[in-house]
Amino acid sequence: MSFQPVKFYQTGTYTVGNRLLGPDERSVQSGELRSNSINSGHRACQGCGEALGARYAIDAAMAESNNQLIAVNATGCLEVFSTPYPESSWQLPWIHSLFGNAAAVATGVAAALKVKGKTEVRVVAQGGDGGTTDIGFGCLSGMFERNDDVLYICYDNEAYMNTGVQRSSATPPTARTATTMPVGKEPGNVFGQGKNVPEIAMAHGIPYVATATVADLRDLEYKVRKAMKMHGARYIHIFVPCPLGWGSASHDTIKLARLAKETGTFPVFEAEHGEVTSVLKIRKKQPIEEYLKPQKRFAHLFGKHAHPEMVEHLQAIADRNIRKYGLLDEEKAHG
Amino acid sequence: MANKPFAITLKPGTSLANLTGSWRSARPVYLNRLPPCNNACPAGENIQGWLFHAESGDYEQAWRVLVRDNPLPAVMGRVCYHPCETSCNRGQLDEAVGINSVERFLGDEANKRGWKFDAPAAATGKKVLVVGAGPSGLSAAYHLARMGHQVEIQEAGPLAGGMMRFGIPKYRLPREVLDAEVQRILDLGVTLKLNTKVEHIEQSMKDGGFDAAFLAVGAHIGKRAMIPAGDAAHIVDAVSVLRSMEGEDKPMLGRKVVVYGGGNTAIDVARSVKRMGGEPIIVYRRTRDRAPAHDFEIEEALQEGVLIKWLSTIKQAEVGEITVEKMELDEKGFPQPTGEFEKLEADSVVLALGQDVDLSLLEGVSGLEIKDGTVQVAPNMMTGHDGIFAGGDMVPSERTVTVGVGHGKKAARNIDAWLRDITYAPEPKHEIATFDKLNPWYYSDADKTVRPMLDMIRRQTSFDEVQGGLDETNALFEARRCLSCGNCFECDNCYGVCPDNAVIKLGPGKGFEFNYDYCKGCGICEAECPCGSIKMVPEDI
Amino acid sequence: MLKQIEGSKAVAEAIALCRPEVICAYPISPQTHIVEALGEMVKSEELAPCEFINVESEFAAMSVAIGSSAAGARSYTATASQGLLFMVEAVYNAAGLGLPIVMTVANRAIGAPINIWNDHSDSLSQRDSGWMQLFAETNQEAVDLHIQAFKLAEELSMPIMVCMDGFILTHAFERVDIPTQEQVDGYLPPFDPRQSLDPKEPISIGAMVGPEAFMEVKYLAHAKQMQALELIPQLAAEFKQQFGRDSGGLVRTYRADDAETMIVAMGSVLGTVKDTVDELREQGHKIGVLGIISYRPFPLQEVRAALVNCKRFVVLEKSLAVGMGGIVATDVRMAVSGTGLKGFTAIAGLGGRNITKASLHKLFLEAEQEKLEPVTFLDLDWDVVNKQLEREKQNRHSGPIAENILYDKGMSTSAAKFG
User: Fold this and answer.
1) Residue C95's closest CA among C147, C160, C155?
2) With pLDDT > 90 as the criterion, what percentage of chain A qualifies?
3) A252 contacts on B by Cβ (under 8 Å)
């Protein structure tokens, strides 16, 4: 996990920067000369977690590659809000082809760079959860299996937001979307079996798989930079709240990402060659309600026609994550 | 781009043409909020301000910011009851920041390194008489001197310090610490006349050609209680006992010493008696939780072997023994006699029931108002008599060293204004940075540093200082526990968390600016500002 | 160098001579032999530097090619039939982005029913994708067209399909003149992309374009293909200069000078057509042939010029616009609109149905006598069709058509008959 050699008790590694840190220990985001890979003027909604996550990740990759970076983008919010003709927000070479082929296009870019001997130029592919866990899944798996020299970053906001908030395979059970309305006996999205794409990525045995959230910048940057130091297929799954799709306040974007991690609903870990090598521990465990309640997509679980059994089920899923990944320190687990 | 495909291929970074600031319905603004510690400090210290410098290890700058308000940090760091820590927001997170211990470290560092105050402002040609060299008088003298006024302190006693010397035992405040801080004030050019009791203030001002006076004579007359006592019963007051500790001859109290009262003075006396080889018993009419003494002092006294009889009053004192009556608290919490009596061995009884002010120097001064044995002052610390100001224990207020120091500063500012024929208008106070304004997530878990305590045998047998200080490492640790409530400490959070890159970082020490051309008003910066230094303000639409 | 060689192998050698830098391979008959051969050449480093990528689908094949082409590498892939359909979204995208990818389409029918044999349904389904499409008549032409295709695509920054009939060409051993590396290098300069992903000069490729500019973008793609109409003959001429043979161009006529009946066709069937025409000419029939090489862009003027002096024409095509009729025929009729020429459409050879000289003989004579229906289905077994239609008239649950037809033809061993 992220590591700050000099510990500052005021803020530790939690804040973006710290005036007391040496220049080489600072986060990329705290730098006045960070690349701002996505420029101002993009058309993301207020408080967009994906815009934030993408800048965090791509700026870090830019820093690690000395700005020798090419980005491939799947169709989705990120693509639409960043490149509507006649303006682009991207400040690095960037290509958008289709919804489901970002991983393959990136493979192609990497192949071209290799054949041309441009070993210093690196490739990232990025997409939302729809473009990654659903429509782009075949290309993603192919890229993994061939171990192509691509870092694929998924910005997971748990539904198809660009098209108007429809369910994806990353949508959590009970969540309201335009295609899983909170009506009937089982309101909201069903309790399916889930689709844990980071674990599926791990099953490919690729060199590096990690999860991160926009709430833990230092951890996110550490993982992107670590991934960029490696070659072969790498996958980072970043949790990015969506105020529009989740019905949350625009200022709660980071708070919700933090709660997702602190409740255990989104486990933050990293793995190399299919083995989990570290987890980001829960600091102050929170009940799942703390995470659910600020989001209107879960509003039907509470109030007049509450569904406590569904909340319990969601809590059980979070608890299973906590056990499975060892997200709590021993004393906290029993405390 | 001319040869690039039309519309499909775009120039990088061109979205700057799209000013998304127009989406905004509320704008973030940077502001400073008043940290609760600063708000609680009776001396008006800018605690967060000096901790900020201590955090980066710049102790001298920290000390310089500190002494803008209080010239006695080494003393404060030992004797202040630190209401700052009581109000510290970190207390709601884990434990309050050890402000007091860092303050002491800075004061000790200053003494060790020989730091001097900044030179005074240009001389104003005005002369001010300060009566009394206690905390309040020294504080006023210091501030007045830095403002460029000529200051003379006239002190009735043989040494400067007032209650800091004659009321607080050495084991809490070593005298060399006090001496060093007094000397630094005198080094500013303040004249100190010892053994000079001002008999009549107006006369003294006239004789010395003073333009104004600040009276801070303290409260040194021990209160008496009506205790039926035999002729030979040995009853003394606490102030006299503590004062005599400073002289060559220690007070003769015998072995069994009953201390009557439940305040800090009672504790001080009892602990001093213990150190002189006596067996002190405190008799107090109410319970521990209702005692005015600070609980940690009671705890330390108990640890050292001081006995305390709660819910007891002295009914009679005879040679070698006293009679106490057991009390019980009524519904309103007042002690009521029970009729149950008990005899205790007592070679002497020390009354620690509070102190009165010697107001004799004010006799015949016009316009003064005396009430309950104290001089009434206006909000600007001036008595009813033009040009005569007063502060410290002789005016109505809580009687602590820190309050006294605060009075001295406040009076100095008002005296300065009065001398210039203007009105001193303090800067309006910012709203308080209460805990709900913070985002405590960002602060690392870090428990308070425990200051070393002297071992028990030496505590019971010597006047060596009980509580140790911090060293450089743990002082830094402690300083860095500060949450910087309400004041930006350049953590870069706003700069980092803005999804629209609408925060401009101006560089170290210069803070940040919002770029309202692009700020969409999402409010993440406010929500994620750890210290509550950003506020969302509705846009006029 | 003359070689007796399989068509696929010949094409693979031609591709290799063009120095592709990235090749994406996914198996589908009948193009498989091409990428297999290329794969071996890359692995043996006979073809280097080149990245040979075994992708997981045709969609990925085209997507990888999009990425590599956008990053400035000469990119190649091959497909057919279902594979082409599976990559369609990326096919359109490659054209939209103006990426000069060269793709061999080993033309094959589209299912259901699944069928691996040749017709032109697959590439013709991509008529409007924005790709250029050149059709080879022989394996020699397939070789030559590939060499020209790279030059054409890169000159215009537009992708191109070189179409060759599955099995008929791909799997046929013929004598083919394989050019030397020097010859090809002298003809085809290194790839100088119009734009490429490069950190030295960042650009954003693939913007979202709204109504304000979308039509202009589309028109510009159209204009590019119009430029190709001029460029294709020019490149064929240059090719002749370098390699000493006629290959490529927009259209090619055969014995057309005084022809009153013209047969219009694409691909390898032209060989059979020409043989038939030769026989008819010997019998005194004024009949000629128009072979279309460039299906996209469609050479309206050249087609019109080739037909304007005849009295009637037959478009013989291996494709069917279900519910309408001919596909190529529609374009040919557009070319001759206003001339009053009599045009017939003959749908032939779907799913690999053999097109025999005998059938063509009969067809062309009927055409000469203008006895043809506007749309003729060559060698259609009307007995089988009518039986099925009759069954369906009686009972809408008539069972699977293919199974029934097999039964009717006496080819089903299970004899399963429904309804």
Assistant:
1) C160
2) 88
3) 527
